[in-house]
Design brief:
By secondary structure, the chain is mainly α. About 75% of the residues lie in helices and about 0% in strands. InterPro entries: Sbt_1.
C-alpha cells in the first residue's frame, strides 16, 4: 500500500476521481501540450547525460537489444491472439498499440524507481525510443498483406465470369459484390505505405524528434550540461509529472464509457496481455542478467500501450480499424492499471527475483 502513496500516482488518481464525479476541473490544452513537451525534453536530457557518463557498455547494449526484441515479439504474439476475437485490421491496430510504448508510463516508472532508491540506466530513454516504431511497421505490413489478399479474392469471381457464359448474365452485379475497400468500407480503400515512409514519419514525428534531439544534446554536453540544467531537468521534473498525470487521469475518466462497450474477451486482453508481456520481459532480462532497475523499466515498456503515437499513424495507415477500440483499451484500461498497480508490482517482482 505504501508504494501507492507516491505523489505522482495520487495526482493521477485525483484526476480519475474528478472525471468520474463530473467535476469542472480541466487542464487547458496549451498547458497540457507544454507539459508533454517538458517531460519529453527532460527525459531525453536525462538519457543523454546518462549515456555520456556510461558510454556504450555491454550492459547498455544488452538492455537496448532486448528492448528491440520485445518491440518485435510483443506485437506479433498480440496479433496472433487478437486475431481469434477481432477482425484482421482491428487485431493489427490493437497489436500495434500494445507493441508500442507509453512515454508517460515510462516516465512515471523512472520517478517511482528514484523514490524507491533503485538505480536504473538513463539510456533506457533510448530503449523507449527504439521500441516505438517496430510495432507500427509490423501492423501496417499486416494490413497491406490483408488488403492484397482481399483484392485477389475480390477479383476471383470476375475471372470466373469470363470462363462461364451461363453466369455472365449476372456480371452486372459483379462490381457491387466485389467492389469497395479491403476493409469493408465501400470506396475507401486503405493506403499502402512503404516501410521507409513509416520510418520517416516515426522518427520525424514531433514527440520522437524532440526526445531524440534532447538525448543527443545531453550526450554532447555531458556533466557540464547536466549541472547547468539541473533546475530544469531535475528539480522541476516531479512537480511537472504530477500535473501531467492529473490531466491524464481526467482523460482516462473520459474514456471509461467507451471501455464498457468492448467485448469481454478484448477487455481480458487489455488486462492480461500486458502482464504476459511484462513476464516475457522479466524472463529475458533475467537470462541476460540485465540490472534490476533496467529490468523493471523493460517490464514497464513491454506492458505499456501507446495512446498517442500509434493512433496518430494507424488512423491514417489502417482506416479500416476502429479507433475507439484501441484508444479506449490503452487509455481506459491498460494505462491506469500500469500506473496504479503495474509499476509497483513489476518493481516488487524484480526485487524478489534479483535478490533471490
Amino acid at each position: 500500500m505504501q508504494s501507492l502513496l507516491d505523489p505522482a500516482i495520487l495526482f493521477f488518481a485525483l484526476g480519475v476521481f474528478a472525471g468520474l464525479v463530473r467535476s469542472n476541473l480541466e487542464m487547458p490544452a496549451a498547458i497540457s501540450k507544454f507539459l508533454s513537451i517538458y517531460l519529453l525534453v527532460a527525459l531525453g536530457l536525462k538519457g543523454g547525460f546518462a549515456l555520456a557518463a556510461s558510454g556504450l557498455t555491454p550492459s547498455v547494449a544488452s538492455s537496448l537489444g532486448l528492448a528491440v526484441l520485445l518491440a518485435v515479439v510483443v506485437p506479433l504474439v498480440g496479433y496472433a491472439v487478437l486475431r481469434r476475437v477481432l477482425s484482421g485490421f482491428n487485431a493489427a491496430a490493437v497489436a500495434a498499440t500494445y507493441g508500442s510504448v507509453s512515454a508517460v508510463t515510462f516516465v512515471t516508472a523512472t520517478q517511482y524507481l528514484e523514490s524507491q532508491h533503485i538505480a536504473y540506466g538513463g539510456y533506457m530513454a533510448a530503449a523507449m525510443a527504439l521500441m516505438e516504431s517496430p510495432a507500427i511497421i509490423l501492423a501496417v505490413m499486416l494490413a497491406n498483406a490483408m488488403r492484397q489478399r482481399q483484392a485477389v479474392e475480390a477479383t476471383a469471381p470476375t475471372r470466373l465470369l469470363r470462363v462461364q457464359p451461363l453466369v455472365a448474365m449476372v456480371s452486372a452485379a459483379g462490381p457491387a459484390l466485389v467492389g469497395g475497400s479491403a476493409g469493408g468500407a465501400p470506396g475507401t480503400p486503405g493506403p499502402r505505405l512503404s516501410v521507409g515512409k513509416i520510418l520517416h514519419e516515426s522518427f520525424t514525428d514531433g514527440t520522437q524528434l524532440l526526445l531524440l534531439g534532447a538525448m543527443v544534446i545531453g550526450l554532447l554536453t555531458g556533466d557540464a550540461g547536466k549541472a547547468a540544467l539541473q533546475p530544469f531537468s531535475g528539480d522541476l521534473f516531479k512537480g511537472m509529472l504530477c500535473l501531467f498525470l492529473l490531466d491524464m487521469g481526467l482523460s482516462t475518466a473520459r474514456n471509461l464509457p467507451a471501455v464498457r462497450k468492448q467485448s469481454p474477451w478484448v477487455l481480458a486482453y487489455a488486462v492480461l496481455g500486458p502482464l504476459m508481456h511484462a513476464s516475457l520481459a522479466l524472463v529475458l532480462a533475467w537470462m541476460l542478467q540485465v540490472p534490476d532497475g533496467d529490468a523493471v523499466l523493460l517490464m514497464v515498456l513491454a506492458a505499456s500501450a501507446s495512446y498517442i503515437a500509434v493512433p496518430a499513424v494507424v488512423r491514417y495507415a489502417i482506416p479500416e480499424a476502429d479507433p475507439s477500440l484501441y484508444v479506449s483499451l490503452s487509455l481506459g484500461v491498460t494505462f491506469p492499471l500500469n500506473i496504479l498497480l503495474g509499476i509497483p508490482l513489476y518493481t516488487q517482482v524484480v526485487r524478489q527475483v534479483w535478490m533471490g
